[in-house]
Design a protein that fits this description.
275 residues; mainly alpha; globular; 11 helices
Length: 275
């Protein structure tokens, strides 16, 4: 009897926590979009001179290049740590390095990127310099989340594959990775969220240029930085409306990127299952 009461109590607490999260998310979204009413339109989104299209393009460039650099490195590191490594001194140092990277303030990454990529390597303030900086910053997120996804796969899957004559690499590619893909997608989504939300490293490495970037080697302004300057310089109510409209576009952009990532992952998982 006591166990049933405790079980119901814990279930009620979890339900309340879930409801609170959902209500908070819905409230934030409703508030943002209600404040953006009247300012969020096609000309605002697609405009170059008075719109935010250059900022959208810059943000997409930064996200895609950052993920393209960090995901292969993070995935390979997670596979090495979970599938190949033991508990040697090198592995302990590697894990310490990953934990240290996760705890470094973002402004430090910005200073490092400014000195290393912008000045020492000669990229200047550009999208590629910002993407390289952010790719280092999101590596711990991808590595740790992917490693946890790999750990969730039962060892019996690996043992059965090896017993049938598959190599270690074939086992990882065809047996371990497909069921771990949801966790890997989670790591990508978390990484995208951090890339989109960062301001200090982007401000120092990408720059403030409002022009439409023609390549990743040019400077630009992301939506986050643009939003910061809009709110910082806002005086009239219309200025705050434009800022909220920019925030709404930022939310929509994140949702689109995350949805596209999940769709591509499902197709990739189906392709791997057919091989």
């Amino acid at each position: 009897m006591k166990r049933k009461i405790l079980d119901k109590l814990l279930y009620a607490i979890m339900s309340l926590g879930t409801a609170f999260v959902i209500i908070a998310l819905v409230y934030i979204l409703v508030y943002i979009f209600s404040q953006a009413t009247g300012f969020l339109n096609f000309s605002f989104i697609a405009g170059i001179e008075r719109g935010i299209l250059p900022m959208i393009v810059t943000t997409l460039y930064v996200v895609l290049v950052s993920i393209a650099i960090a995901l292969p490195v993070g995935l390979a590191t997670a596979i090495f740590l979970n599938e190949y490594s033991g508990n040697s001194g090198f592995i302990r140092i590697l894990r310490l390095a990953i934990e240290t990277l996760a705890g470094i303030p973002s402004i430090i990454y910005g200073l490092f990127g400014l000195l290393m990529f912008c000045r020492l390597l000669g990229f200047g303030q550009s999208i590629v310099a910002g993407a390289l900086t952010l790719s280092i910053m999101i590596l711990p997120v991808i590595i740790r989340t992917t490693e946890e996804a790999l750990k969730s796969i039962p060892d019996s899957f690996r043992e059965g594959s090896l017993a049938l004559g598959a190599t270690k690499f074939q086992t990882i590619v065809h047996v371990v990775l497909p069921p771990a893909l949801p966790g890997i997608v989670t790591s990508v989504i978390l990484a995208i969220g951090r890339v989109v939300g960062e301001s200090a490293p982007v401000l120092l490495t990408v720059g403030l240029t409002k022009n439409m970037p023609r390549s990743i080697f040019e400077s630009g302004r992301t939506l986050t930085i643009h939003l910061y300057y809009l709110t910082n310089e806002a005086v009239r109510p219309e200025d705050f409306g434009i800022a909220f409209a920019t925030a709404a576009v930022l939310v929509i952009l994140v949702v689109i990127i995350n949805t596209a990532t999940k769709i591509m992952t499902k197709k990739f998982r189906k392709t791997m299952g057919d091989i």
